[in-house]
Amino acid sequence: MFDLRYHVASLAAVFLALIIGILVGAGLATRTDVEGSERRVLQDRIEELEQRNDDLVAQADLLRRQREAGADYITNTYLPLMNGRLRGKRVALLFTGQPDDSALDAVEQTLQDASGPSVVEREAFALPIDPEQVMDALDPQFSGLTMEEVGRRLGEELVEGGETPFWDALIPVLVQDHRGDPSTESDAVVVAHTGVATDAPTRMFFDGLYAGLAGSGVPVVGIEGTGQRPSRIPVYKANGVSSVDSVDTQIGKLALALLLAGGAEGQYGLQRTADDGTLPAPIEP
Fold first, then answer.
1. Most distant CA pair in the chain: distance in Å?
2. Residue 209 and residue 188: Cα distance in Å, rounded?
3. Which secondary-structure segment (H or E) carries 64?
4. Complete DSSP assignment for 159-221
5. Residues paired with residue 179 on neighbouring β-strands, in sequence order
6. Measured distance CA(7)–CA(212) in Å, rounded
């Protein structure tokens, strides 16, 4: 026979089981509600991301169509805008180091498309500059000049033409590729900075050369091709001359023609270094 203590203990066990069941059931119900809430949040997030993805796809498609329209517009207007732009302009091309066939091709194509003559003078410097050879080659009356002053004189003579005592004396010791006649006056100058000045005399020489060109009063434009590394645009900008990147593209050639024709000075092209935009404002040919 069960005594009272056993009966109380049994009732306590039953009540404890009931309490545990209630708590477990409540916990499961709460967990189900939490999971359901989390699912709703995730579903809302998925729908938001899907909408953003659709928006981005639409924007990318719009940009693609705008790019294609822009490319078509450039192709259709390139030759009319170039026609006659450089007619009669005498353009000199200067390589501050090794000649670059791609740069030469881009300049010649620009001149051809803009109704201009071919490059009238082309010079490519042999680096590094040897100051002793330079001074030995010059007339003794110029013996006291610095390398910067020599560079400046060469820059001025390249534009002015006529009597060119510095070019005449220094072509044999400074120039590795020479085409044309230094005595020919230049209406504009294109510079392709293909060499690197690794010593003080060469740096001083180029500082003077750029100063002579920049102060000549004619358009001076530094160029580089698409994706050139390292970029030479900072060199041109630091020396006070305009520049065009991506000169191997139609946009680059048009920018070059506009600058050589007297367009607003600045840095133009398609790269981040184009501080002044893609193209200078067109002016009447």
1. 139
2. 15
3. helix 4-82
4. HH-S--HHHHHHHHHHEEEEEE-TTS--SEEEEE--S---SHHHHHHHHHHHHHHHTTSS-EE
5. 122
6. 115
Does residue 5 have a pLDDT over 50?
A: no
Q: Cis bond leading into 230, ω under 30°?
A: yes
Between vectors from CA 202 to CA 196 and to CA 208, what angle results, nearest 5°?
Answer: 110
Rounded to whole angstroms, the Cα distance separating 263 from 285 reads 10
Side chain identity at 94, as an amino acid letter?
L
Lowest model confidence (mean pLDDT) among 39-53, 83-97, 165-179, 200-214: 39-53
Calpha distance 222→246 (Å, rounded): 11
94-133 burial, b if ≥16 CB within 10 A, otherwise e?
bbbbebbeebbebbeebbebbbbeebbbbbbbebbbbbee
Query: What does pTM read for this prediction?
Result: 0.77
Per the structure block, which two tokens stand in for 252?
């680059």
Per-residue pLDDT of 86-128, as tens digits, reads: 999 999 999 999 999 999 999 999 999 999 999 999 999 999 9
Report how far Cα 245 is from the mean position of its chain's Cα atoms.
5
- The whole-number pLDDT of residue 59 equals 77
Chain centroid offset of residue 217 CA = 26
